[in-house]
Amino acid sequence: MFFSLTPNTGLPLEDILPDDSYIREAFKTRGDAFGGTASGVTVVVKDQDFNDLAIRTKFIDASNQVGNLTDVVVKLPNW
After folding, report:
1. Spans of all domains in the chain
2. Rounded CA separation 31/24 (Å)
3. What's the predicted TM-score (pTM) here?
4. 27: exposed, middle or buried (C-beta count within 10 Å: 0-12, 13-18, 19+)?
5. What phi-psi label fits residue 64: left (phi over 0), alpha (psi between -120 and 50 degrees) or beta?
6. pLDDT tens, 6-63?
7. CA angle (35 as vertex; 22, 5 as ends), nearest 5
8. DSSP classification of residue 37
9. Smallest Cα–Cα separation from 12: which of 37, 32, 33, 44?
10. pLDDT score for 21
């Protein structure tokens, strides 16, 4: 199931806001400060027993490999 916070007009949210909307300034600030909108990643692990140290180690290694990619801006700490 997919949910979107963008109205289903086919237009970007920025294009349907009133010209004097404070949200427009927020979008500009986000673009200036962060270069745009960040994309998140969700990982679903199936059929793995995380009680097994080897499984946890492989998962942590894979997470670190993704975190070390050049496009990653923020890497969350591994708990």
Report:
1. 6-37, 40-79
2. 11
3. 0.48
4. middle
5. alpha
6. 556 677 777 788 888 888 888 888 888 877 776 677 778 889 999 999 999 999 998 8
7. 55
8. P
9. 37
10. 86
